[in-house]
Amino acid sequence: MTDIYLVRHGQASFGKANYDKLSELGGQQAIWLGDYFKQRDIRFDAVYRGDMVRHRETQEGIAEGIASSQEKLPQATVDSALNEFNFQAVAKAYLIQHPQDKVADGAASSEYYRLLKKAMLAWSKDQLAHAHLDETWSEFSLRTKSVLEKMQSTNAKRILVVTSGGAIAMMLKHILGYDSSTVINMNLQIRNASFSQCFANPRGIHLNNFNSVPHLDVIDRLHAITYS
User: Fold this and answer.
1) How many whole angstroms from its chain centre is CA 208?
2) pTM of whole model > 0.85?
3) Could you read off the pLDDT of 80-89 as tens digits, one per residue?
4) H-run or E-run covering 26
5) Which residues lie across from 209 on neighbouring strands?
6) How far apart are CA 25 and CA 31, in angstroms?
7) Rounded to an integer, what is the distance from CA 81 to the centroid of its chain?
């Protein structure tokens, strides 16, 4: 039996020129998560992460929170199959077909999420021109499934996986069997530096808990529960 912790990266730099970087709060969220693992004596014998900057910085923050003279994170296996889908390309491809849905500059973040939800739904139905996309919905699904299959066959007892919300939502689709519209809804629910815990063996993978933030769910850290 393998215990898998699917961790979404800490808060990224939403609205900045480079989204693929943790905010100051995002870095702190990761450190607090590592400290939680240390306090609970949750030890990992394998680490996987995507190759995006926010994945690396989240892993480094977790390692900082865990660090002690007795315990360190194992060296990570970097796998681009754990990267987030290119949401900017998906939104752009959607707007080429639906320019009337463009969000005005300075609009509330909720307007951008509404656009992303529409774009992802069209993407999932294969309604967007492939020439404007990095990958199809099916290709995104298959690459996340490939990661789960690797973890099913590993000898590791407990694995830390640092990835993104869309990738986690898609992996959970393969575990729970829900439809594409639920992938989209789950993606938008997953909190920064949260973990979803699964148990795996060669026969299957089972979800134990979803979207947990015990390291943030304390009175002086409630402000640190974020979604973007």
Assistant:
1) 17
2) yes
3) 999 999 999 9
4) helix 24-39
5) 197
6) 10
7) 12
